[in-house]
Every structure is written in C-alpha cells, then in structure tokens.
Amino acid sequence: MAECIFCKIAKGEIPSHTIYEDGEIKAFLDIQPSNPGHTLIIPKKHYENIFDLPERLLLRITSTAKKLGGHYREKAGYNAFNIIQSSGKDANQDVMHFHMHLVPRHEHDGLDLWKNMKKGVKPDFEALKEKLKIKQP
Ligand SMILES: [Zn+2]
C-alpha cells in the first residue's frame, strides 16, 4: 500500500488541510471540492471500503462527520450537508482507501446529487424484496 495517497496523507507524508485528527482518524479538506468546506474523513489505517472497515471505526468516522457538521454549522453558517460514502469502483469510489465525504450545502448552491438518477425505472419490487431481505433468526 506504499502508493496509497490517503495513507500518505494520514502519515503526513503529503500535506493536507487538516480539520480534525486523532489517533485513528483524520479529516481534511478535499482538494477538488464539490462545495467550499467539502471534507474527507478517513481512518489512518488502510481499509479499502465499508466491508473491510471494522464497525467500531465506521461508527467513529460517522460520529466525526456529525461532530464536524455541527462545528461547521456553528462556525461557518452551513446549515445542510450531504454525507456520502462510496464503496467499490462501480459506485465511483475513486481512492481505494475508505473515506466519507462531508459536503456542506446551502440554498441555490447549484449541486444536484440526484440529477442523473434513473427516473421511471420500475423494478420488480416483490422479487427484489425476496432476494434482498434479511430473514429474522
Ligand atoms: Zn491507504
């Protein structure tokens, strides 16, 4: 994993605009922001995606997103956020080191995350439910 850019950022080998850091987590400004304040939250240790990230760390990262969002609301006047996590190339995961996006939003900022959604798709919901549901023990 010597080439992983987020591992290098986590170790401070590549500089970043760090917003928050503790022993396990680092949050820094995305250098290609969707909106000003767009922040990435990563585990310092390398995990590829949500499936190999320990649940305890996922909870800590999610909790950090909430803490930062609250801080941004208080200090920068942002009042809305998108919290995005992509796991897998087909979901547009660009860096294969788990990261959570915290994207501050404001009215008329021109972002529309659902612009390209497939409108009018009508899957077989009953078949999907049968395939996907988790059976209670
Ligand atoms: Zn990494």
| CATH fold-level assignment | HIT family, subunit A
Helix content bin: 25-40%
Number of helices: 3
Outline:
globular
How would you write the strand order of the largest sheet? 1-2-3-5-4
What's the structural blueprint in terms of helices and strands?
Elements: H1 5-11, E1 18-21, E2 25-29, E3 39-43, H2 55-76, E4 80-85, E5 100-105, H3 125-132
Residues 1, 4, 6-7, 46, 97 line the site of zinc ion.
Q: If you had to describe this structure to a student in words, what would you say it looks like?
A:
The chain is an alpha+beta fold. It has one domain (5-132): HIT family, subunit A (2-Layer Sandwich). Helix content is 27%, strand content 19%. Strands 1-2-3-5-4 form a five-stranded antiparallel beta sheet, with helices on one face. A hairpin with a 3-residue loop joins strand 1 and strand 2 (25-29). Bound molecules: zinc ion. Residues 1, 4, 6-7, 46, 97 line the site of zinc ion. Zinc ion binds next to helix 1.
Give keywords.
alpha+beta; HIT family, subunit A; 5-stranded antiparallel beta sheet; 3 helices; binds zinc ion
Condensed summary:
With 137 residues, the protein is of the alpha+beta class. It contains three helices and five strands; from the N terminus they run αβββαββα.
